[in-house]
Design brief:
Strand content: 5-15%
Shape: elongated
Radius of gyration: 18 Å
Number of strands: 4
Mean pLDDT: 89
Distance between the termini: 38 Å
Largest sheet: 2 strands, parallel
Structural class: mainly alpha
Length: 188
């Protein structure tokens, strides 16, 4: 995001506020939230954030760089895949919960996710997004587990906080090795 902000002459905070509703990431009905819930498509999002930028005194806003984002999203952490495999061999249900945009659905082609985890939840397909409580409730219900018996890992603090608020145990993944060690400690 920093490169896009600077490249287009925006302060990073202002760019984030317009692009994804930073400061109100977990709440509200920002166009980014609508896009991740599958309520609108990329072209509608682009028009909406361009309007937001103009209302804030800018000359417009750059369109969502779908190819750049897709390149970033296509990075799979092998150590996390190994963790998933280890957890599943212990008989523990696993799932992927992703905030996604339909136009970025190519991540599904990286692997046969349905054979790697028990459940794949894509926000743009089910109309819910992290950190909304209802997505965590949906995941727990779908896996047949109580929130208090669930671990949720994410690289965004707001999403971890959302999971914790529903009763799940949340782990922020800033350093994968640290998060993996914590998961293994908790599951014994």
């Amino acid at each position: 995001m920093a490169g896009g902000a600077i490249e287009h002459g925006f302060d990073l905070g202002e760019f984030g506020a317009i692009a994804i509703g930073r400061g109100d990431y977990g709440n509200g009905d920002h166009p980014w939230h609508q896009l991740e819930r599958g309520e609108i498509e990329v072209d509608e999002y682009n028009r909406a954030v361009d309007d937001l930028a103009r209302k804030r005194g800018h000359d417009g806003f750059p369109p969502l760089p779908v190819d750049r984002i897709l390149g970033f999203a296509m990075n799979v952490r092998p150590e996390m895949l190994h963790l998933i495999s280890d957890v599943r061999t212990r008989g523990i249900s696993t799932g992927i919960v992703t905030n996604n945009v339909r136009a970025l659905g190519a991540w599904r082609d990286l692997a046969d996710w349905d054979s790697i985890v028990d459940l794949v939840v894509d926000s743009s397909h089910i109309g819910m997004r992290k950190p909304e409580a209802r997505i965590f409730e949906y995941v727990c219900s779908s896996l047949g587990v109580a929130p208090a018996q669930s671990l949720f890992l994410d690289d965004m603090q707001a999403n971890v906080d959302g999971a914790v608020a529903t009763g799940m145990h949340g782990i922020l993944v800033s350093e994968p090795a640290v998060a993996i060690a914590e998961v293994l400690r908790l599951i014994g």
